[in-house]
Amino acid sequence: MSEQNTGLIEGADGRMRCFWHANLPDYMAYHDREWGRPVADDRRLFEKLCLEGFQSGLSWLTILRKRENFREAFDDFDFERVARFTERDIERLLGNPGIVRHGGKIRSTINNARRAIELAEEAGSLAAYFWRHEPQPEERPERLDYATLRTLGKTDASIRISKDLKKRGWTFVGPTTVYAFMQAMGLVNDHIEGCAVRAEVEAERARFQRPR
Fold first, then answer.
1. pTM of the entire structure?
2. Which residues form the signal peptide (predicted)?
3. What domains are there in the chain, each with its CATH number?
4. Active site includes 52?
């Protein structure tokens, strides 16, 4: 079957993987080592949700290749520090050619840092909040093939999270952005059936201690 039918491509190592990394070395490393593996670190969760907001209208590869610049610019996404950013910081960030210089998204990141402090205080941690929204097995497709994956731009779970975050004052957290965050942070395993790392990721999810 062709890549268009299976959603899989063969790498130079002979392993079949999800098509989207396009055999680009840095993108393949992200696919193999990060995407879909469960995360419970609040700073990394905050980072990914912010970067998904920056990615809106762009490719994730663009953001991935600027990620270290973003980390430097936003104090490694320590949301307690980002929450204290001022107009001077915004001007500094708007002049930084290493990141996406979008005023609305920069201001959103600062706003969301303040909302993250509130949410962590209420829920105990960002991880506890997000993982309590992990989809139940009955909410997931029985088999994740390429055709099914293409229907999952947003789900009931991502819509629920998006609505709740927006009520709490978060911005740039639409349901599609939230679902991409869920895929990356391991709240779901969207590696396609037949992908060489799908079973490995699923085993890691099975061992993962959900935050409470």
1. 0.95
2. none
3. 3-207 (1.10.340.30)
4. yes
